Amino acid sequence: MRLDSLFDLGGRVAVVTGGNSGIGKAIALALGRQGARVVLMARRKAELDAACAELAAKSINTRGIAVDLAEREALAEACIEAALPFGAPDILVNCSGINVRKFFVENTDADWDATLAINLTAPFLLTRALAPAMKTKGWGRIINIASLQSVRAFGNSAPYGASKGGVMQLTRATAEYWSPFGVTCNAIAPGFFNTPLTAPVFRDAAKAQKNADATMIGRNGDVEDLYGTAIFLASNASAYITGQTIFVDGGFSAK
After folding, report:
1. I want to staple 89 with a disulfide (CB 3.0 to 4.6 A). Which of 15, 29, 114, 149 is the partner?
2. Which residue out of 160, 177, 227, 240 is catalytically annotated?
3. Is 96 in contact with 22 (CB distance < 8 Å)?
4. Per-residue pLDDT tens over the stretch 97-131
5. Edge-to-edge, what's the strand order for the sheet holding 13-17?
6. Tens digit of pLDDT for each residue in 218-236?
7. Which CATH class is domain 4-248?
């Protein structure tokens, strides 16, 4: 007997923040192809509408919510709205993120506050708002997006690194509280993927190649490389895995 049903997301509802581009859109597409109905949250409405149209063209039931997750009242309203199209979410993917990229001493208070608000505070608030309905169902999956910088330092991104270190610990804390109720929480830590967030890195061909050479596989990531891990962590296949951070980085962190 085949075990395909372990990875089936038919009937599930997934909320994906940062779903208008890059890694967020890729994960939303993967979950949708497995049968999930998808609610995308993002700040830039034009890109959000385009992403919804792209997923809908692939026969994925999709709705978009334009929201600035740094605004707490707007975030709270978005969490209520997220349940309206398809019912209470079963899956939450916290993918929205910013990286200011300045020398340590050049970071302003506003840079620090904005980075922590989007990268760390928003995942906490979204989880606090949406996990209770998952608990009621006895089933839920929360997937955070960590980073190589969760465990090591890179230049010119101190607030980002601090926030992603926090995401890794938030993942453990979330798992510790919610897992007894059937709601697991894990994180994906991507390596270097060519997305709008990492565009400054990939504009430098020599730097991009250096990062590729630092992996064991010998290349940087394609967003399609995230499909399998995202589906696994969002499905019944990962029922006994929680509090973990999986590095999808071509072996970068292990070399």
Report:
1. 15
2. 160
3. no
4. 999 999 999 999 999 999 999 999 999 999 999 99
5. 62-66, 37-42, 13-17, 91-94, 140-145, 183-190, 245-248
6. 999 999 999 999 999 999 9
7. alpha beta
pTM above 0.70, yes or no: yes
H-helix or E-strand spanning residue 212: helix 205-213
Beta strands in the chain (DSSP E): 13-17, 37-42, 62-66, 91-94, 140-145, 183-190, 245-248
Contacts of 254 (CB under 8 A, 6+ apart): 216, 247
Known catalytic residue at 177 = no
User: Cα–Cα distance between 249 and 93 in angstroms, integer?
Assistant: 19
d(CA 93, CA 122): 11
